[in-house]
């Protein structure tokens, strides 16, 4: 590289964020009824009234996820309830850190599909997904009409 150029690599993601870069590629369908995905994986049906939409397209409010985990679980919580609680928390973390979008308050529900089996989770390549998301968002930010940027900006600092 010539002087002054910098490229963000998968090794940077692994070192800076400690995300796994080995494992299965993160893939999944985006052709889903997302309100049903919320019910199945997260344990609630999002409210979508005109003035207060918790679910917009495929993205859910991070605050709605945090509401689900605000109260402690009961001591006699079943495993399914515990997993839904954990998925809400993990999805909120993903949306606030490595998969941020320009709304700054929503996270894409497609990531919850990788959290299906918390008892025996598959090893996913979260580092590649993070880097791909960042480059996608940087590409969007290069549009002349765009005035915001998103993605895991810790990697570009």
How would you describe this protein?
A hairpin with a 2-residue loop joins strand 3 and strand 4. The model has no long low-confidence stretch (mean pLDDT 90). Helix 1 crosses helix 5 and helix 3 packs antiparallel against helix 4. This protein is mainly alpha-helical and 157 residues long. It is globular, with a radius of gyration of 17 Å. Strands 3-4-5 form a three-stranded antiparallel sheet.
Strand order of the largest sheet: 3-4-5
Number of strands: 5
* Main beta-sheet strand count, sense and barrel state: 3 strands, antiparallel
Poorly predicted regions are: none
Element pattern in H and E: HHEEEEHHEH
Structural class computed from helices and strand pairing: mainly alpha
Q: What is the radius of gyration?
A: 17 Å
Tertiary shape? globular
Overall pLDDT confidence:
90
Oligomer status: single chain
Measured between the Cα atoms of the first and last residue, the distance is 19 Å
Helix content: 25-40%
Beta-strand content estimate:
5-15%
SS element count, helices: 5
Which features would summarize this protein structure in a list?
157 residues; mainly alpha
Short description:
The chain has helices spanning 10-17, 34-42, 62-70, 79-96, 126-141; strands at residues 48-49, 52-53, 55-56, 59-61, 106-108. By secondary structure, it is mainly alpha-helical. The strands form 2 sheets. The chain has a 3-stranded antiparallel β-sheet. A two-stranded antiparallel ribbon has the order 1-2.
């Amino acid at each position: 590289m010539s002087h002054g150029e910098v490229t963000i690599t998968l090794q940077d993601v692994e070192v800076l964020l400690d995300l796994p870069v080995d494992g299965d590629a993160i893939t999944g369908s985006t052709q889903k009824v997302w309100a049903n995905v919320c019910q199945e994986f997260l344990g609630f049906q999002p409210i979508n009234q005109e003035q207060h939409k918790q679910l917009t397209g495929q993205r859910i409010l991070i605050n709605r996820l945090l509401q689900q985990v605000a109260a402690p679980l009961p001591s006699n919580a079943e495993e399914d309830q515990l997993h839904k609680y954990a998925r809400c928390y993990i999805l909120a973390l993903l949306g606030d850190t490595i998969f941020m979008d320009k709304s700054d308050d929503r996270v894409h529900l497609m990531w919850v599909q990788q959290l299906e089996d918390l008892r025996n989770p598959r090893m996913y390549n979260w580092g590649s997904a993070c880097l791909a998301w960042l480059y996608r968002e940087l590409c969007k930010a290069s549009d002349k009409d765009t005035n915001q940027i998103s993605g895991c900006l810790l990697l570009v600092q």
